[in-house]
Automatic annotation (TrEMBL):
Protein's recorded name: uroporphyrinogen-III C-methyltransferase
Pfam family, one: TP_methylase
SUPFAM superfamilies, per database record: Tetrapyrrole methylase
GO annotation terms (biological process): methylation; siroheme biosynthetic process
Domain Tetrapyrrole methylase: 17-225
Pathway linked to the protein: Porphyrin-containing compound metabolism; siroheme biosynthesis; precorrin-2 from uroporphyrinogen III: step 1/1
Naturally occurring in which organism (per UniProt): Advenella kashmirensis
Family: Belongs to the precorrin methyltransferase family.
EC number(s) given by UniProt: 2.1.1.107
Keyword Methyltransferase: yes
Enzyme class: transferase
Keyword annotations from UniProtKB, A to Z: Methyltransferase, Porphyrin biosynthesis, S-adenosyl-L-methionine, Transferase
Length: 275
């Protein structure tokens, strides 16, 4: 372990550097070893709004914690201010951890920030993290790809600056599993757009709120019933949607196990009796 968890290099410490650290979905045990090392040695943490308390609890006593939250529909720190703040700290020789939920390069603006820092002549490096879509699949035992069911997966966002939407019609014909980020605030419109584009109303959907956190909640439904069920369950952001036939595989496997434990021998009885 002493070989892996090493200090930041002498050159980095002398000149200052920005690290775009993917902190994963919330469970501190899902941090990579490299992310943990960088966080332990950083002088400043610039922290996204969705970083969990478990991650924040790992901050060393010498580190300054600076909240720079950004959430759709909520008061947010301006991106231009975050960029200037990273540059200011790095130019004073500090090690700056820009702590991002999930992975910096999956709906995390990591590419924009890394390019801007390069233009400013500031040393920077990205440290990958587990994105919420992958974490949700593992947490729920839900395969995003599965032989003969789903041969691929697409990560999409329902929230864009220009209001553009994915090509739902093309995705409806693809047979791929969809992992939709930032879709909760407009789930009714999302449902309507997908149904109009040709997605089947009985297409299975998993809704996962606060993935891997202590207060994680999940809901299994269909595209046709999605919005009503989300409302009835009181689910909200942050959450993601997993849409596709692969979701059925997880639900059937879980129901079979539950009914087997209850002494119900027929797998065909599972969905009616246990779901």
């Amino acid at each position: 372990m002493t070989t892996i968890i090493k200090r930041i290099s002498t050159n980095d410490a002398a000149t200052g550097k920005v690290w775009l650290v993917g902190a994963g979905p919330g469970d501190a045990e899902l941090l990579t070893l490299k992310a943990y090392r960088i966080l332990q040695n950083a002088d400043v943490w610039l922290v996204d709004d969705l970083i969990s308390e478990d991650i924040l609890a790992l901050a060393p006593t010498h580190a300054r914690i600076v909240p720079v939250g950004k959430r759709g529909g909520c008061p947010s720190t301006a991106q231009s201010f975050i960029l200037r703040l990273m540059a200011r700290y790095a130019r004073t020789g500090l090690q700056v951890a820009r702590v991002k939920g999930g992975d910096p390069f999956i709906f995390g603006r990591g590419g924009e920030e890394l390019a801007w820092l390069a233009e400013q002549g500031i040393a920077a490096e990205a440290v990958g993290g587990m994105t919420a879509g992958l974490a949700a699949a593992s947490a729920l035992g839900l395969p995003l790809t599965h032989r003969a069911i789903a041969r691929g997966v697409v990560f999409v966002t329902a929230h864009t600056a220009d209001g553009a939407a994915p090509d739902w019609r093309a995705l409806a014909q693809s047979g791929l599993t969809l992992v939709c980020y930032m879709g909760m605030s407009r789930n009714e419109q999302l449902q309507q757009d997908m149904l109009q584009a040709g997605f089947a109303g009985d297409l299975p959907v998993a809704v996962v709120e606060r993935v891997t956190c202590r207060n994680e909640r999940s809901l299994f439904t269909t595209l046709r019933a999605m919005s009503a069920d989300i409302s009835a369950a009181g689910l909200g952001s942050p959450a993601l949607l997993i849409i596709g036939q692969a979701v059925t595989h997880r639900v059937q496997a879980r129901a079979h196990a539950e009914c087997a434990a209850q002494g119900m021998p027929d797998a065909m009885t599972v969905q009616a009796a246990c779901l």
